[in-house]
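tool_call: predict_structure(chain=1)
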Amino acid sequence: MTDCTAPYCASDARRRRRHEFSYYLRTNMSSKSKKRRPSKVVPEVPASRPTPNWALLALSCLGIALTAYLSWVALSGGSVRGCPAGGGCDLVLTSRWATLLGLPTSLWGLFAYTALAAISFVKRADRHWSYAWTVAFFGVCYSLYLTVVSLTILGSACPYCLTSLALMTATVALVVVQRPPELAQRSWLRLVAPRAALAAVVILLVHGNYVAPQVEAEGPEDPMVRALAEHLTDKGVLFYGASWCPHCQEQKRLFGASARRLPYVECSPAGPNAPQAPSCNIAGVQSYPTWVINGRKFVGQVLTLAQLADASGFPDKASFN
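tool_result:
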């Protein structure tokens, strides 16, 4: 046993307690400060593409060339090379499915390929892939829809349309192969399902508009429009068309209830896949509608009432201006 004088032992005990208390405070305060100190999170830098997506750009340029040509022909009223009047290609390119919201369907395809060409220059890898995947997926869905319509409803095929489908399919395959590693953890179901659902809704709405019955003009005739229709007949004007030609139907709608008075010649009485009527062959009709006015041909374009009145010398042509 160690001898200890009472006052000294008491002071040693107090020093030990103070030392233990101060150590307790230091350890607890340091642990709390460590808990309160926010952890530093290093933000992830999105991966970037060092160069444009040349493969995507090449496919897009081919699609732009194809759809630009078809759009130019549709807007100018010309005829597409390799598509004789009444043939399968002509049937598809002049059907009601050849226009969408008042514009040629090929022009919408041109917008899609132009968007893909612009996306090929997006540097951020995840955004580049997401944009390209969305546009290409919608493009191939609509191309498949048009192909099914042409083969089932129209009973024909168009090489130009099939080429566009092949380009869109190749674009989708390219985008699938180029899927960046940072998106590998996302399932294909999540990538496909929402886009497929939206594409299905849009296509169903568009298809419903296409197959809706056309309302024929009824009611009283406009005296001036009737007079123009009768004048065209009296002048020996000829209006060549086909029952399945949407532009011919559009031309007739301009005359309303007086359309039955037009000097109309049906060039496809046996249907779109049958030979053209001999009278149309003799007249050299290659595209619908075709107007022959005073020996002058107006091929593949819908003429306004003012144009018809002016070309035929209608006495009251000023009424249509």
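agent: The first strand starts at residue 99 and ends at 100. Proceeding to next step.
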